[in-house]
């Protein structure tokens, strides 16, 4: 019984930590000046805007733990047969440290040939 209480407590702490990182990453993306400028003339009555994020990885060292998330925003016009625009960014920051602002780095997907794959 005690073990299950301890495991539940750990699960709640880990769940809370990840949701805070998710919120920080999403807010950093949404408030980036490039995103704000892009959405300035896109009203919600004329566009669907959908955000998603994916945890990439993290690393811990002497200075603390760093997290990385891939955040995407898909903007679609509500008109017929409208194409979508998807903007991607890698957002990284320090876990538990609110003094250091997360960094937003926009990325572009390109085709990668097998010859360009990293050697392991």
Give a description of the structure:
By secondary structure, the protein is of the alpha+beta class. The chain has one domain. Helix content is 30%, strand content 38%. It has 2 helices and 4 strands, in the order ααββββ.
Strand order of the largest sheet: 1-2-3-4
Overall pLDDT level: 82
Low-pLDDT runs of 5+ residues are 1-17
Q: What string gives the helices and strands in order?
A: HHEEEE
The total of helices stands at: 2
Structural class: alpha+beta
- The radius of gyration over CA amounts to 18 Å
State the end-to-end CA separation.
45 Å
Query: Please, how many domains?
Result: 1
Percentage of residues assigned to helices: 25-40%
Provide a compact summary of the structure:
With 120 residues, the chain is of the alpha+beta class.
Give the arrangement of secondary structure elements.
Elements: H1 2-30, H2 33-39, E1 47-61, E2 64-77, E3 84-94, E4 103-107
Antiparallel strand pairs: 1-2, 2-3, 3-4
Observed structural traits:
alpha+beta, disordered N terminus, 120 residues, single chain, four-stranded antiparallel β-sheet
């Amino acid at each position: 019984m005690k073990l299950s209480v301890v495991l539940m407590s750990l699960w709640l702490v880990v769940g809370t930590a990840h949701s805070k990182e998710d919120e920080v990453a999403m807010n950093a993306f949404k408030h980036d000046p490039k995103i704000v400028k892009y959405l300035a003339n896109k009203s919600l009555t004329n566009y669907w805007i959908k955000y998603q994020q994916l945890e990439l990885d993290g690393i811990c060292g002497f200075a603390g733990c760093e997290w990385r998330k891939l955040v995407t925003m898909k903007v679609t016009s509500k008109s017929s047969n409208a194409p979508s625009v998807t903007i991607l960014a890698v957002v990284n920051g320090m876990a538990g440290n609110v003094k250091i602002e997360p960094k937003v780095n926009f990325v572009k997907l390109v085709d990668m040939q097998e010859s360009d794959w990293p050697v392991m």
